[in-house]
Each structure stands twice: as structure tokens, then as C-alpha cells.
Amino acid sequence: MSDTAGETVIGVIGGSGLYDIDGLENAQWRQVESPWGAPSDAILTGVLDGVKMAFLPRHGRGHVHAPSTVPYRANIDALKRLGVTDILSVSACGSFREDMAPGDFVVVDQFIDRTFARDKSFFGTGCVGHVSLAHPTCPRLSDAAYEAAKSLGITVHMGGTYLAMEGPQFSTLAESKMYREVWGADVIGMTNMPEAKLAREAEICYASIAMITDYDSWHPDHGAVDIAQIIATLTGNAAKARDLVARMPARLGAARAPCPHGCDRALEYGIMTAPEARDPALVAKLDAVAGRILNG
Ligand SMILES: CSC[C@H]1O[C@H](OP(=O)(O)O)[C@H](O)[C@@H]1O
Ligand SMILES: Nc1ncnc2[nH]cnc12
């Protein structure tokens, strides 16, 4: 197998309210072709503090894609084609915890996937692959994001379980209470699944920052989700998210040691289909995501 040490390339997937980032040298919006379809938008590439960066607005500029129709596979594949090694996902989320208040950031470390209408894997008939998702986020990248947020004076919580719902409607009161009281979720959003699963399949380290915009519907003093309040909080959060992103290159550095947690080797023993039984068309589509294993 090939060595995974090399150059850091930071990918940032910006969620609701974050449609670009500033300060990149040689900034350029680039159309990236993918065999998995068109990504959400062009990808903004450039260099920040000597580290290559690639920014993709998850919903597209102008917020075109709904949570269910974001082209998750094309997005992860396109970032992989640009050489991205580490993805920082930034997302607007509701909170199930009194102490995770609107305006706070949460470094997510677990997910409950309740989505049901999305393509969730690059693998399938003709090339079956399995990866571990017990620890779906990368501790090295998550630590860097946490430290960056703390250094900016942002109220940030380390660790939290993100409930991924299909949407686009928000939860009923009964669902909100069940996610919080029975399932023990901390935050809720509509987009980090299957994104995190696909990043793991593509052997890209993934960390997720939840920017809290509301208390969903469970909170007796806050009532139901109010989209006007969400947008107001989002606007404030976006500036903090940009500052956090700007600190990431200095935290990670340009030279990249292999991930100590194995994210960049997740597929090492994961492909089950015998070489002679593989579908050449699917293998060809997997050139970026799994080329290290399939063609290594
Ligand atoms: C604007 S509220 C609902 C919307 O915001 C979140 O998007 P993202 O995760 O991309 O920041 C949430 O998941 C919904 O898609
Ligand atoms: N309460 C909520 N539920 C789902 N997604 C969200 N994004 C922001 N707030 C949310």
C-alpha cells in the first residue's frame, strides 16, 4: 500500500450561511468534474499560510441545494480529486442541551443517522467495500478545530452527538423530545450524513463544527424553531466560522504525517470483492476515492 504521509490540503465544506472564505492567495473558483455527478458548486482553491485550501459551499452559492439533494458523493469525490486530506465541515445546528446555546460551537464526535433518501456509499454491486465508522470523526483534526476556536474566544464544546435528520421540515415536538431525552443526542442538523460516511470511505480525515442557531423545539422557554432567529444567529456565526477556518492552516501545517487514527487508511482491508469479480465500470468511477487500494 502507498504511504499516506505527504502534503496537507484542507477542505472546508461550508453550510448554511457560509458560502465563501476570504484571505486565500491565488484564489480561484474551479469547476471539478466527477464521475459521481456535478458537485454543489465550483470549488474555491488557494493557499493560506502556506497550506493549500479548497472551499466548497455545501448548498451552492445562493443556497440552491436542499439537504436531501446535496450531491454528497460528487462533493467528496471532487475534494479527493483536488488532493484534500482533511475536511472541516461547518454546519448550522439546533441544540438539545441547555448549555449548548445559540452562538456556541460544538466539535461533533458522534452521529445518529436518521436520513433515508440519499446515496450513502461509493461502493455497491461489483465492488463492495466496508469501513469502520465507530469513531466517525478524526480526533487530530477535531482537536485542531477546537484549539482554533478556543484561541478566538469562541464558546466551544468538545464532543457531541449530531442527529442527522432528512428534513427539510424541522422536527415535531415529539421527535425533538425523543432525540434529546431517549436517544441522548446533543445537536441536530440535516447534512452531516452521509457526508461523514463518504469522507471515511474516501480516506479523508473529517471533523464537524456545529454552529448552534436554536434550541430546536423541546425548550419550554424558547418554543418552536423560528427560521428568522436561525438566520439572525447564522449571520453572527458566519464571521466566527471564517476566523476559525483562517486559523486551521497554522494548526495543521503543510507537511502531513499519516493520520494517527487511521482515517487515511480506512479502506486498507475494506474491499471484499475479489479482483476478478469487480465491475470495471464501478472500479473506474472509484479511481479517486479508492485508487490507492484498487490500483495500488
Ligand atoms: C438554515 S436552517 C436548516 C439547514 O441548515 C443546516 O444546513 P447545514 O448543515 O448545511 O449548515 C441544516 O442542516 C439545514 O440544511
Ligand atoms: N433545529 C434544527 N433542526 C435541523 N437542522 C437545523 N439547522 C439549524 N437548526 C436546525
UniProtKB/TrEMBL annotation:
Residues noted as binding substrate in the record, renumbered to the chain: 190, 214-216
Site (Important for substrate specificity): residue numbering on this chain: 171, 227
InterPro entries: MTAP, Nucleoside_phosphorylase_d, Nucleoside_phosphorylase_sf
Catalytic activity: S-methyl-5'-thioadenosine + phosphate = 5-(methylsulfanyl)-alpha-D-ribose 1-phosphate + adenine
Binding site for phosphate: 16, 58-59, 91-92, 191
Gene3D superfamilies recorded: Nucleoside phosphorylase domain
Cross-referenced Pfam families: PNP_UDP_1 (PF01048)
CDD domains registered for this protein in UniProt: MTAP_SsMTAPII_like_MTIP
Its EC number(s): 2.4.2.28
Entry's Gene Ontology BP terms: L-methionine salvage from methylthioadenosine; purine ribonucleoside salvage
Superkingdom of origin: Bacteria
GO cellular component annotations of the record: cytosol
Gene Ontology terms for molecular function: S-methyl-5-thioadenosine phosphorylase activity
Pathway listed: Amino-acid biosynthesis; L-methionine biosynthesis via salvage pathway; S-methyl-5-thio-alpha-D-ribose 1-phosphate from S-methyl-5'-thioadenosine (phosphorylase route): step 1/1
Keywords: Glycosyltransferase, Purine salvage, Transferase
Nucleoside phosphorylase domain: residues covered: 10-247
UniProt subunit comment: Homohexamer. Dimer of a homotrimer.
Recorded family membership: Belongs to the PNP/MTAP phosphorylase family. MTAP subfamily.
HAMAP family named in the record: MTAP
Function: Catalyzes the reversible phosphorylation of S-methyl-5'-thioadenosine (MTA) to adenine and 5-methylthioribose-1-phosphate. Involved in the breakdown of MTA, a major by-product of polyamine biosynthesis. Responsible for the first step in the methionine salvage pathway after MTA has been generated from S-adenosylmethionine. Has broad substrate specificity with 6-aminopurine nucleosides as preferred substrates.
Name of the protein in question: S-methyl-5'-thioadenosine phosphorylase
The organism of origin for this protein: Litorivita pollutaquae
